């Protein structure tokens, strides 16, 4: 009988030379069985532990400003893309969800956490703004205020005769 070595990784025999193996995250038992030319054999076991120390990858969307005549508007966006080297699910949470927003700027932050506790985050800004109000050319150049009320824009002049012009969004 010819001496031999057999290799088992995770309970499966690995055949062929070179014995190269990529281990997955977790614990894997490796077993060598040595057999001499007389048929005597001995087993050798060890465990390989691979820890996940790499954070997930998260990419936030690019978001254009939202322009609306209404102070309150429904805003939605594409969810961030998230991947992890483990191939396992990643928990993703955000400080704000899509929904109703008022005029203003909002910082949206997404946090991703993999099963090993590694974290990554990304953020973007939602800018909800009113339509620009077109100002009539017949108004005085001395404007005192341009205001929005509900979905109408009012332009107030500070000229001697008070002129109020209401305009719709451009």
TrEMBL record:
- Return the Gene3D superfamilies for the record: Immunoglobulins (2.60.40.10)
InterPro entries hit by this protein: HYR_dom, Ig-like_fold
Q: Which residues form the HYR domain?
A: 51-130
Keywords per UniProt:
Repeat
Q: Does the keyword Repeat apply?
A: yes
Which is one Pfam family of this protein? HYR
The name of this protein is Hyalin-like
What species is this protein from? Lingula anatina (Brachiopod)
Where is the organism placed in the taxonomic lineage, from the top?
A: Eukaryota, Metazoa, Spiralia, Lophotrochozoa, Brachiopoda
């Amino acid at each position: 009988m010819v001496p031999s070595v057999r290799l088992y990784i995770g309970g499966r025999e690995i055949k062929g030379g070179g014995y190269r193996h990529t281990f997955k995250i977790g614990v894997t038992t490796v077993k060598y069985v040595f057999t001499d030319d007389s048929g005597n054999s001995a087993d050798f076991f060890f465990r390989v532990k691979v820890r996940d120390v790499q954070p997930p990858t998260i990419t936030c969307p690019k978001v254009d400003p939202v322009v609306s005549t209404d102070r309150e508007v429904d805003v939605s966006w594409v969810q961030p893309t998230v991947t992890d080297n483990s191939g396992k699910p990643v928990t993703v949470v955000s400080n704000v969800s899509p929904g109703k927003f008022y005029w203003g700027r909002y910082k949206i932050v997404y946090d991703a956490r993999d099963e090993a506790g590694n974290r990554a985050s990304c953020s973007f800004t939602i800018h909800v703004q009113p339509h620009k109000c077109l100002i009539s050319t017949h108004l005085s150049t001395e404007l005192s205020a341009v205001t929005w009320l509900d979905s109408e824009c009012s332009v107030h002049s500070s000229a001697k005769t008070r002129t109020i012009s209401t305009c719709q969004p451009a």
